[in-house]
Specification:
Structural class: alpha+beta
Number of strands: 12
Helix content: 40-55%
Radius of gyration: 32 Å
Largest sheet: 5 strands, mixed
Order of helices and strands: HHEHEEHEEEEEEHEHEHHEH
Amino acid sequence: MFGRKKQGREVKRVAQTVPKSPCDSSLLSLSRYAAQTSAERQLYSALRESVPMIDAALGKIIRLIGGFHIRSDSAECESLAQQFVREVKSNGTDQGLHGFIYTYLDTMLTYGEAVGEMIPSSDGQGIAAVYNARLDDVEIRADGSPLNLLVCRRDAGGANPVKYQNLVVVSLLNQRAGTARGTSLLRGLPFVSGILLRIFESVKNNWERVGDVRFAVTYKPDNGVFSEENARQIADEWRKAMRSDSVCDFVSVGDVSVKVIGSENIMPECEVPVRALLEQITSKLGIPPFLLGLSWSSTERMSSQQADILTSELEYYRDTLEPVIRRIVRTHLQLCGCNTPFRVEWDDINLQDAVELSQARLNNAQAQKLENEIGWEEEDG
């Protein structure tokens, strides 16, 4: 007869589907190739700097996540938790747990991974501050099992596990199977963004060549004999005419022709390819185009469907963040001597959802009322 396993016990068993290490069959070591490199993170950072729409989309996702509140059956526990959420120090300059969570989400969306740390107060009575770790300073590994993650600090001598793992929180976005590695929301965008930036660079070069008008002056001597002195005089007069602050005529003697460089060229149309690339980017980020200022033709029904899709995306990110919030708040309450259960309640994503929810409740109430009236009539009959 098997005994019941206590809740909250750390999982120590090694998964059966994990290949045995040739050095030690009881441990799972994270290979170097499975760790996210600094060059990859720099690439994602460069994408946000180079393509403003990507940075704007991530910023809107973070702002649309909304706020949260801690609720508990114990008024004292709820008050203590709410005070902690409002007043905890975050990253040295911010105050409140919301700022930490927004930075945490920003890192997770950009790089697919996020690491945070809880810093207890000097007297051990609660959490004094929370800190968003820089991913270049830490490394995430599997500790004996793919079910347990180990956070290591990168030092001069290598990566060493931090001493208090219970004070560190880790999140992996869309974790890859069999690895301790997340997937960036920007994965798949470097190729498309590279084409987009190449188009923008070409437009810039074309406008520098064609938009800023440049002239070619050609001198053909009448007698067929080239005179260096005449050519120098024509060049000097041309420079005076072009550098003059006011409109100035250029007068010359002989067969002299002036043409605009590139005047016979036609600027290639880029609206269609640019829109196709932007459609790929917006579909990957999950943001409706109208939220990014893109006035593409769409019906009201289409906009409503896009808003519903965005709502589901935000709910997914909330589900990813909620375990982090619960763990931080629970640690603070336990250090303060409070073990009362609590729950995390999020604000409504937008007013439209609240209105639709109220309308649905009204419709259900009216339907229930009609059913009761029909039931009473049948009983009276």
